[in-house]
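User:
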Amino acid sequence: MEESDIHGRIGDLIRLGTIDSIDLASATAVFRAGDLTSPPLPWLEWAGAFRSWSPPSAGEQVLLLCPEADIAAGVIVRGLYSSAAPAPASDASHQIHGAAGLVITLTEDGIAITAPGDVAIKGNVAITGDVSIDGDASLTGKLTAETDVISTGISLKDHKHSGVAAGSALSGKPQ
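Assistant: Predicted structure:
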């Protein structure tokens, strides 16, 4: 094998290019680098006991790893920022940005989730710590408070009524 063949063969092992198209049903994508177009190939994703689903986007910059320089056996490696898809932050936070406007940010101060629509949680939720709600709340079912419920400064368990009269008369507002 001539030296020029070796360099060409090594260049065929790892290629820089972009995603041309995606087939969501088969979890494969077509890689393109110049005139070279691959057959549908898998992209690197978590696929063990913990699995994730984050399909690539057309035009996303990727690497193609080709065992033995065989493009048909290639695997697409994602995660390369480019001018078309720059890093979502320039600080030490960890962020996930979704195409629909979802942003999840993890910092040393906590987690912030910004969702363009509703957030639905199915299953029991346990929270240790204070909860603050800025907006209306709706409840289907029973609300149980172990100590007290206070509304506009009036205690549910310790409030008193003014104007209490015997019989069927109505009392005044709680105080």
